[in-house]
Amino acid sequence: MKQQVIIATKNSGKAKEFESLFSAFNIKVKTLLDFPDAIDVEETGHTFEENAVLKAETIASQFGQMVLADDSGLCIDALNGRPGIYSARYAGEEKDDEKNIDKVLKEMKDVPAGDRAARFYCALALAVPGEKTITVTGTCEGEILRERHGENGFGYDPIFFLKDKGVTMAEIPSSEKNKISHRAAALQNLYIILKDKLNQGEMK
User: Fold this and answer.
1) Full-prediction pTM beyond 0.85?
2) Pairing of the two strands 117-127 and 66-76
3) Which of 25, 27, 85, 119 has its CA 20 to 30 A from that of 93?
4) Which positions in this protein are listed as binding Mg(2+) (predicted)?
């Protein structure tokens, strides 16, 4: 029977980003859309890693299967790392991208150009029942602009400026974003670990 992994998300677009990684190891990808009775895990951790591990281990325990979970967000140096783990709900519980951006821009209003460094951060946790959970991280460095630019992407992409490209994350196509994003970096790190485990015969 082909091994499978549950991606702890109901976002089919996000799941597709993981499919190519696991297909390289002949592992079938499922999502929480395939498991409607999955526990709705409350993210009570204090870090991205803690939240990712919490989600992965809870669902892995429920179904007795391998589970990959991620937690990610925007960390701004001038705001002491905020919005951080609260990125999705920074302006309120309803997850409003525009209100989140407005709040960040307001808080950054008086921050000078040289002090606007920020990064997107992603933590991945791969939990297998009875084994030690694997965690990896990835980042994408940038700066916070004073106004929105671009129509692509989502979340904070319109104000996240990529210095080496001279554009915001919202001004590049998704195909390019998927190569340079924080999630892409984390996936690459996970690929290295999975390949190593496979070579050592630790994955059947």
Assistant:
1) yes
2) antiparallel
3) 119
4) 42, 71
User: Sign of the CA dihedral 138, 141, 144, 149?
Assistant: negative
Domain boundaries, the chain: 4-199
Beta pairing, strands 4-7 & 28-31: parallel
pLDDT digits (tens, 9 = 90+) for 2-25: 589 999 998 877 787 788 788 888
40 is known as an active-site residue: no
Which residue among 34, 37, 40, 71 is the active-site one?
Answer: 71
Known binding-site positions for substrate:
9-14, 72, 154-157, 177, 182-183
Binding residue positions for Mg(2+): 42, 71
Q: Residue 134 carries which side chain, given as an amino acid letter?
A: I
Is the domain defined by 4-199 classed in CATH 3.90.950.10? yes
Residue 46 CB coordination number (10 Å): 9
